[in-house]
Design goal:
The chain is of the alpha+beta class and 353 residues long. It is built from seven helices and 15 strands. A five-stranded antiparallel β-sheet has the order 5-1-10-11-15, with no helix packed on it. The chain has a five-stranded mixed β-barrel with strand order 6-7-13-12-9. The chain has a two-stranded antiparallel ribbon with strand order 2-3.
Length: 353
């Protein structure tokens, strides 16, 4: 299963971190689909129904675009089939946040977009998974191993970021140097577009494809997201013109190129959206971490004393209440550096390989 992810990069950083290769081998920086940067919100704790960054062929939006030209789009997690007849997509009676690779051709919800070439790559810093213990579950954060030399770019204020985003629209994809920050997970997925029966704005949604867990993750869970490891696998998954569906499905294999570490049970609640969700913990000492007055004071001190602050995400309003109604929630704004926590400069704990 994959029911929770983290994606903390700002829109401009995501564009730089998700460069891709076309059929000729030339590298490009993808642009965002018009208006989609406003839908995406960085978060340390993303759950289904929220909007996540997705890489896909621009041909899906522009019939004159080359199939191997890619764009970034913000799509809602949890696939709503194009044939769904209700006026409210929240009335879906079954869970489509994940789909098993073994049954892609058996279920209409997934078979239709697969055969139409509606393949996408979901981008994330990493994902969370829970190991079932006797009376509780221990959460882990799972991600690609990071280069020790990689540095996350200096954080920007919200106003500076908005300026950079507008300037970025006019940049050539050759203007920026290679990304040396956090290496994002590239997860295979399928997407579909749904239009309300009575007319209205098209809703783009996606599902995460899962496979059997790799040997190094089997102690945590028996399933894992289908990862695309490297630019060639990403290109082949997205190029539905050159690589047909049955051939592309061969890419959906367990990958052992992941590392992980245990994290606080704070991540169990999707309303918690802070740096502490990612901080490595020692489960033998601290099985459950609750925010205390002293920890809040420390986090407040870090916010003001740290010379490098990450971009603060805006308020999320995608969480659903217990009765299915949407509730506006003010998320705790992430601060500090993801690189700091996970590469050891912000914590003495090192990731478990």
């Amino acid at each position: 299963m994959c029911g929770r992810t983290a994606c903390t990069l700002a829109p401009d950083e995501l564009s730089r971190a998700s460069r891709y290769r076309d059929r000729t081998g030339q590298r490009h920086r993808p642009r965002w689909k018009d208006g989609d940067t406003d839908k995406y919100r960085p978060s340390y704790n993303k759950s289904p129904q929220s909007f996540s960054p997705v890489l896909l062929s621009n041909r899906h939006f522009n019939k004159d675009a080359p199939v191997d030209e890619c764009v970034l789009a913000a799509m809602r997690w949890g696939l709503v089939p194009a044939w769904f007849k209700e006026n409210d997509p929240n009335k879906m009676q079954y869970n489509t946040s994940n789909c098993r690779s073994e049954s892609l051709l058996e279920k209409k919800s997934y078979k239709d977009p697969l055969l139409k070439g509606q393949r996408c790559v979901i981008l994330a810093d990493g994902f969370y998974e829970w190991r079932r213990l006797e009376k509780e579950k221990q959460p882990f954060f799972i991600y690609f191993p990071q280069s020790q030399g990689g540095q996350v770019p200096s954080p920007q204020s919200t106003q500076e970021l908005k300026c950079d985003q507008s300037l970025d629209q006019g940049k050539s994809d050759q203007d920026d140097s290679d990304w040396t920050g956090w290496r994002l997970l590239t997860i295979a997925g399928l997407f579909d577009s749904w239009t309300p029966p009575g007319g209205g704005e098209v809703l783009y949604t996606y599902t995460v494809i899962t496979v059997d867990a790799s040997p190094n993750l089997q102690s945590i869970h028996d399933r894992m997201p289908a990862l695309l490891d490297g630019e060639d696998e990403v290109r082949r998954w997205l190029d539905f013109g050159e690589v047909k569906s049955l051939e592309a499905m061969k890419l959906l294999q367990p990958k052992s190129s992941l590392t992980f570490h245990p994290v606080s049970s704070l991540v169990n609640n999707s309303r918690n959206n802070s740096q502490e969700c990612l901080q490595p913990v020692d489960p033998t000492i601290k099985k459950t971490v609750q925010p205390t007055a002293s920890s809040k004071m420390m986090m407040s001190w870090l916010k003001t004393a740290s010379p490098t602050k990450r971009k603060n995400p805006d308020e999320e309003t995608t969480a659903k209440g217990p009765e299915g109604k949407r509730t506006a929630e003010k998320q705790t704004k992430p601060t500090g550096s993801l690189q700091q926590w996970l590469l050891g400069t912000g914590s003495s704990k090192k990731p478990k390989i």
